[in-house]
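Something for you to look into today, if you have time. Just paste the record in under my message, thanks.
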Amino acid sequence: MGQVKQGFERQIIPVSLDRILPTRYLDKDIEHTKKYLTILTSIRELGVIEPLAVHRQQTNAQGEAAFVLLDGHLRLHALKALGASEALCLLSIDDEGFTYNRQINRLTPVQEHKMILTAVRRGISPALIATVLGINIERIHERQHLLDGIAPEVVEMLKVKMVSRGVFRTLKKMKPMRQIETVELMISANCFTQNYADMVLAANSYRFSVNDNASTFVKTAYTALCQGVDEATPVECTLTQESAMVINNIRALHCRDVIRDNRRVLVRIFGLSKFSTPIVVSEDPLVLQG
């Protein structure tokens, strides 16, 4: 196996700003963009975290070398705006800048949440984080509590996905099992927008809520059913080709639930008419043939 070629010199060197030659022109409105303002605030508070990438040109008659800027145009512009005279630079062996813009890994919302929690645990205040990033502190608090009320399985599935933060607000309106099912749908469709999550919530909410015009008797019965389901002890049974259904009350309202065996299977649970004659497979627990 051949030796991997080194792309940079090992030492980071200070370079005067007037000797750095940009390779592209920045629009005059760049100073009003969110990205530039974040970089400007970060450099003002912490300094340059990521050195500029430059390539050395031939020296002039005075023996001074110029440096072509390969990556870091916004950082260079911010340094000039802050009155800096020099910048720390990585000296590239090649004079190509394609790699820097192509090999970018964006932080997902879950990763950003974990980074903020880690920073807070190490004693950095949310106010300082907000100042460095140039954003409102309320947004830091929102990201800090992004996963409150989210099922662990959902966090695991979305940890490397670029998900709209609004998706998590919608998921918090669902119970854990419904969160998992919704995220599975999103992954299958490769769509992680809040509109998609809202659509799934709206399409299924009618099955888990009572109509506004329903009678008081129906609303009371539904509330009692929800309470009973929450307090009930799950009964395990193996689903076979006969598709047995578990009925816990002949007057149970129509709902959906999960029976766990070696798979996660969604089955319907519904009430029986008092005029029906079900085929009883087992009395305790009551199991009827589907």
Summary: The chain has three domains: 8-102, 109-207, 224-288. The mean pLDDT is 77. Residues 224-288 form one domain. Residues 43 and 49 are 8 Å apart (CA to CA).
